[in-house]
């Protein structure tokens, strides 16, 4: 769906277009706004991430592969993990998150900044449409301390009690508040300079549409013993530094992939 002269128009993007995946993701976000799943500011957030994805070459780079393994390791070792889902994440990777949730028995909780009960209900139904029997987020019964924004509202059996929280497309305030509760915070953020990226315990600098399937696959192949070794060797600050160095090398080389 696109917009022209104030009226919605259908967009047909040929699969051989060099930006096919990027453009189709953009259209899914726009459709999500039309469906009431994504707040209109989600368009801005997606565009910002898209720009950073260009810098990566629209591929999963080696530091992201290492961070993905660390994220999988943290989830494998977790006593009580949860996947926090907002509008952009739901429309871009809802099906893949639902699959990961079923395979690895990880609850999904809807948690959004521009919160209305109607939008939460639509997102819950959207995720249930991918085969999940239960999606948390309606009627939150707990509050994240030291967070003065709508995303503080959460479910006790989900985000509040979890020891590991996967928070794709996160905001820095909540990442910091979750860490303040003693949780391990995993984020997927295409901007390695963001407060979220630098606050999280594990930051995957990658597109969520690539990162979620990669985490799922890594978890399926990992034992708890292997997970411990991976976590012990991982340093988020060093990984972010390697990410920035990778981007700098690409820019210096004029790589236009």
Describe the structure.
The chain is of the alpha/beta class. The chain has 2 domains: about 1-55; about 60-245, Phosphopantoate/pantothenate synthetase (Rossmann fold), CATH 3.40.50. About 55% of the residues lie in helices and about 10% in strands. It contains 11 helices and 9 strands. It has a 5-stranded parallel β-sheet with strand order 4-3-7-8-9, with helices on both faces. Strands 1-2 form a two-stranded antiparallel sheet. Helix 3 (about 60-75) crosses helix 9, helix 3 runs antiparallel to helix 11 and helix 4 runs parallel beside helix 9 (about 210-220). It starts with a strand and ends with a helix. The relative contact order is 0.16.
Compile the SSE list and pairings.
Blueprint lengths: L1 E3 L2 E3 L10 H15 L6 H16 L5 H16 L3 E5 L1 H18 L3 E3 L6 H12 L13 E2 L9 E2 L1 H5 L3 E5 L3 H9 L3 E5 L6 H5 L2 E3 L3 H13 L3 H10 L2 H18 L4
Parallel strand pairs: 3-4, 3-7, 7-8, 8-9
Antiparallel strand pairs: 1-2, 5-6
Helix pairs in contact: 1-2, 1-4, 3-9, 3-10, 3-11, 4-5, 4-9
In CATH terms, the superfamily of the largest domain is Phosphopantoate/pantothenate synthetase
Structural class: alpha/beta
The largest beta-sheet arranges its strands as 4-3-7-8-9
Instruction: Flag low-confidence runs.
Output: 1-6
Average pLDDT level: 89
Instruction: Give the total of domains.
Output: 2
- What is the radius of gyration computed over CA atoms, rounded to a whole number of angstroms? 18 Å
**CATH topology group of the largest domain:** Rossmann fold
From the 3D coordinates, which CATH architecture of the largest domain would you assign?
A: 3-Layer(aba) Sandwich
Helical segment count: 11
CATH class of the largest domain: Alpha Beta
- How many β-strands, per DSSP? 9
Estimate percent helicity.
40-55%
Give the SSE string.
EEHHHEHEHEEHEHEHEHHH
């Amino acid at each position: 769906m696109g917009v022209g002269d104030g009226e919605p128009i259908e967009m047909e993007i040929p699969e051989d277009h060099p930006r096919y995946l990027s453009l189709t993701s953009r259209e899914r976000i726009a459709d999500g706004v039309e469906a009431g799943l994504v707040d209109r500011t989600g368009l801005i957030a997606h565009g910002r991430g898209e720009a950073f994805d260009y810098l990566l070459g629209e591929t999963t780079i080696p530091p992201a592969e290492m961070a993905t393994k660390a994220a999988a390791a943290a989830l494998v070792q977790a006593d009580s993990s949860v996947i926090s889902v907002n509008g952009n994440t739901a429309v871009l990777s809802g099906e893949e998150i639902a699959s990961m949730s079923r395979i690895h028995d990880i609850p999904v909780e809807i948690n959004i900044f521009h919160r209305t009960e109607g939008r939460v209900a639509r997102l819950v139904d959207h995720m249930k449409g991918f085969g999940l029997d239960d999606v948390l987020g309606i009627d939150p019964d707990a509050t994240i301390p030291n967070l003065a924004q709508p995303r503080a509202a959460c479910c006790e059996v989900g985000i509040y009690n979890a020891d590991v929280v996967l928070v794709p497309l996160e905001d820095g305030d909540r990442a910091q508040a979750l860490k303040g509760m003693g949780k391990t915070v995993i984020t997927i953020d295409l901007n390695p300079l963001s407060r979220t990226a630098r606050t999280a315990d594990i930051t995957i600098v990658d597109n969520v549409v690539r990162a979620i399937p990669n985490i799922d696959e890594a978890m399926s192949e990992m034992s708890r013993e292997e997970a411990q070794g991976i976590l012990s060797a991982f340093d988020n600050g060093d990984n972010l530094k390697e990410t920035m160095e990778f981007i700098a090398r690409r820019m210096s080389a004029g790589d236009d992939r």
